[in-house]
Amino acid sequence: MDRAVAHITERIREAVAQRTPLRIRGGGSKDFYGNSARGELLSTASLASVRSYEPSELVVTVGAGMLLVDLEALLAEKGQCLPFEPPHFVWSGERAATVGGMVASGLAGPARASVGGVRDYVLGVQMVNGKGEHLTFGGQVMKNVAGYDVSRLMVGALGTLGLLTQISLKVLPVAPAEATLCFELPQAHALEQLHAWGGQPLPLNASCWVRDDTPVGGARDLLFVRLRGAVAAVESACLRMLTDQRGHRMDNAQSQPDWDLCRNQQLPFFLQNPSSDQVLWRLSVSQTAPVLDLPWAQLVEWHGALRWLWAPESAGVQLHALAKSHGGHATCFVADHALSTGLEANFPLQNGAQAEIERRLKASFDPHGIFNPGRLRADF
Fold first, then answer.
1. Which band of pLDDT confidence, cut at 50, 70 and 90, is reported for residue 148?
2. Rounded alpha-carbon distances, angstroms, from residue 178 to 69, 113, 121, 229
């Protein structure tokens, strides 16, 4: 891997000297995410080795190009996992998610609201900046307080600040017990019930509310709640929640594949684009936000904090304003399955202070603007 890092670093130095934009790419599973990438392709595929793994310390260090499926298989052998369930987006073509792409996108799955996101599990990184310098930030231990927390700054930056070469992650043991409960509830009632359960000492792990429309059963509003934790805690929670609200417990063999489909956006809601002029919007809002008064069907995750909907691109102004009024923001997530959003307002700035901070960060890490130009915003 040292040779691969040296080769990539030299390639970046040449690009800096020639002012040539570079398009950083891992496995390509998130090519659809953000604005259209520009520049010469710079792959991280050669950075795929395991640098160190200490199961007893709950820490793993790998190259940024390592496939996410390989890392998860390695952890599973020791009964461990990435609890935030990073999506693989296998529908995005013959592409495979990488650990570097996981960090660069900062996307997490159904358990995000309960266990935290990618940023909460990044302990340290090595990266090449826009000056061709190979830098190390953070470390390989959980109690690392030296210097600025640059490692987590890379989460969600979509490669606009530098190229990740190595990543150290905190991992956790797989929960001893798991159960999924299903309730037939309208969205407003489902949100109220989730808030009530959230105020109790229950091992809530994930939730998903969706309108299930089948030719046989017709339309039904369903809330799925997943519990994870100690065996006694999960069993006690199931009894309490089924007493609070009429529902049923699903067999894990049935529910686990459905949660994987939710994680990777392969549920019918995500796959059945209502019409050609609609795009998939992702609204991140306060967990206590009420039902959003919108004419489009929704899927709700993260105990109410994440709302998905298919709506026209022209609804962007309305959705941005609505999300902001509930303490969040809206993102055009997928424009179509041809993976070409072409949108310039995917990641709107919240205020002038944020814009100034981002400008200074970009000037410090990538002064010549060679990394993924325009991926986040036209001027970033």
1. low
2. 22, 17, 22, 7
The domain defined by 2-173+354-365 folds into 3.30.465
In this structure, the number of other CB atoms found within 10 A of the CB of residue 226 comes to: 25
How distant, in Å, are the alpha carbons of 63, 164, 311, 317 from that of 66? Answer: 6, 12, 35, 38
Question: For residue 227, how far is the Cα from the chain centroid?
Answer: 20
Distance, CA of 288 to CA of 211 (rounded, Å): 20
- Give 195's pLDDT tier (boundaries 50, 70, 90): very high
Q: Is residue 139 very low, low, confident or very high in pLDDT (cuts 50, 70, 90)?
A: confident
Cα angle: 103, vertex 106, 110; to 5 degrees: 120
Number of Cβ within 10 Å of residue 38's Cβ equals 12
DSSP H or E segment with residue 232 = helix 231-244
End-to-end CA distance of the chain: 30
CB distance 155 to 183 below 8 Å: no
Query: Which tokens in the block code for residue 313?
Result: 């691109």
**Strand spans (E) along the chain:** 22-25, 40-43, 50-54, 59-63, 80-81, 122-128, 134-138, 163-170, 172-173, 177-184, 204-214, 218-229, 248-250, 278-284, 298-301, 306-312, 329-334
With contact defined as beta carbons under 8 Å apart, do 182 and 250 qualify?
A: yes
Residue 304 phi, psi (nearest 5): 110, -10
